[in-house]
Amino acid sequence: MRFKAIAIDGPAGAGKSTVAKLLSKKIGFTYIDSGALFRAITLKVLKLGIDINDINSIIKHAENSKIDFINNSIYLDGIDVSKDIRDDIINKNVSYIAMIPEIRKIIVNIQRKIAKNKNVVVDGRDIGTTVFPDAFIKFYLTASVDERARRRYNQYSDKTKYSIEDIKNQIIHRDYIDSNRESSPLKQADDAILIDTTGKNIDEVVEEMLYNISMKGGI
Length: 219
Ligand code: DC
Hints:
By secondary structure, this protein is α/β, with parallel strands linked by helices. 49% of the residues lie in helices and 16% in strands. The strands form 2 sheets. It has a 5-stranded parallel sheet, sandwiched between helices. It has a 3-stranded antiparallel sheet with strand order 3-4-5, covered by helices on one side. A hairpin with a 2-residue loop joins strand 4 and strand 5 (79-80). Helix 1 packs across helix 9. The two termini are 13 Å apart. The structure holds 2'-deoxycytidine-5'-monophosphate (DC). 2'-deoxycytidine-5'-monophosphate (DC) binds next to helix 2, helix 4 and helix 8. The site of 2'-deoxycytidine-5'-monophosphate (DC) has 14 residues, from helix 2, helix 4 and helix 8.
């Protein structure tokens, strides 16, 4: 039996992880949050105090890391880091770690290994283009930058820390790095279905995906 992968790509704040989680639950697939893998390596690098420009050391530590998903939580070297990887300091540094081709290779391999014996829904930036080019179906989610900033802002419990404008600028900066790096940049695959989630709620987006899946003959 061949296992199926559903690819969901798009820029920061497009709603990928929320819909990917819900979609995977509805269809009984395993969810892989590929951004969490980059975030876990970034956390390790920062915790160890490795210079962000010391590529060789970053690669060495990434190669020696044990990263697992257990019940939608991410474990780094046996410790649940699901919360820590969402810290601001990770948001600010993760795109630099994600630029390193060797790191991308390590993370592609982790994802392909998981998908070897499971049906998966995977969200990220390069899933449809690089990680699973033969995915059963590919979606590219986007939304206006203002809406993406608003969504991120609403996720913060402390609303005094950043203004929506600050978050908007962070998102624009991260999108720029993600879209312009040399190694598998953020890009819509030619055969991906574009969904603009501006003004749509989670259920509407998931319904649209389920409709497209059914048009492909279902899973
Ligand atoms: O989806 P996210 O915000 O958790 O992703 C964090 C960063 O990781 C993002 O800025 C770019 C990078 N990333 C990537 O390069 N490729 C992926 N497949 C997923 C994430």
